[in-house]
Amino acid sequence: NPSFNIDSLPALQDQPLSDFAQDMLSGMASKPRSIPPKYFYDGAGSALFDRICALPEYYPTRTELRILTDRAAEIANHIGPAAEIVEFGAGSLTKVRLLLDALEAPKRYLPIDISGEHLDGAVARLRADYPGLEVVPIVADYTRRFALPAPVVDGGRRVGFFPGSTLGNFSPEEALAFLKSAAQMLRGGGLLLGVDLIKDPALLHEAYNDAQGVTAAFNVNLLHRANAELGADFHPGNFAHAAFYNAPLQRIEMHLVSKRAHAVNLLGERFTFAEGETIHTENSHKFSIEGLRTLAVKAGFGIGPVWTDAERLFSVHWLPV
Ligand code: AVJ
């Protein structure tokens, strides 16, 4: 946020602030307040996300895994030979196993994830199960500039894997920018992209308001993280989880709603909250197949086949480039 001036914090001038610190300060100083969803994924947040994926209400993970399982041979056939797989936001490295099993012996796998702590354990387990595969974990925020190692084989095809509808966290402009840079990175290969589809808002509502409250805990974990890493004094009990479908913008929004008027101290600044004031913590955009394809073409991809489940809840696209 351009209106937030970091130089107004005399005590902190000498010490470089982490990305999380900077984004928290600017997010708290802006109105409406917001925090980018990538900060959900510290160790505890990544573990909570894994629990979300197993919830009965959270259909995306289960549905995408089913599509990938049922159509693996067909998908692999369309992808063709791949020298390496680059996964964006790799998480627990579960879904890629289906690809590794189906594709014609890829040599190298590059999982990129923002949570190093979580990635390390997942990589150790994957290496044990795929001894012939070179696994090079990259701890990076792939929404910023990052470097990939040189191709593993000269002229070898690089295939991108971006499952889980993580693309939906981006604004439409950010999604286009991300896809443009992915298209450059993957030229000669393509991107296997999983995105959640527009559907009955009641189903969406349940998926982000689960009965066990795991999604609420995932949302509130941001405040625990800010307390632990930045010495903030959020009282998590002062905030309630809110998730709703914004139909005109075709997205689920998650917020943390202040239950009462109170103040929070963060990195030498004091932020006051009115009762009912929210911190916007996530957008999860939903797509139509045509809308996604239009976006992909704008970014420089070609159009390949799309696979969906029988209820058309979720879609997996092969985008050659
Ligand atoms: C990982 C961004 C795809 O938007 O569904 C799950 C994150 N947030 N429940 C999603 C999430 C709340 C998830 N993505």
TrEMBL record:
UniProt keyword terms in alphabetical order: Methyltransferase, Transferase
InterPro entries with a match to the protein in the record: EgtD, EgtD_Methyltrsf_superfamily, MeTrfase_dom, MeTrfase_EgtD-like, SAM-dependent_MTases_sf
Gene Ontology molecular function terms on file: L-histidine N(alpha)-methyltransferase activity
Record organism: Variovorax robiniae
Annotated ranges, domain Histidine-specific methyltransferase SAM-dependent: 20-319
EC identifiers of the protein: 2.1.1.44
Gene3D superfamilies: Vaccinia Virus protein VP39
Membrane found in the keyword field: no
Record-given protein name: L-histidine N(Alpha)-methyltransferase
GO BP field: methylation
Keyword set includes Methyltransferase: yes
Superkingdom: Bacteria
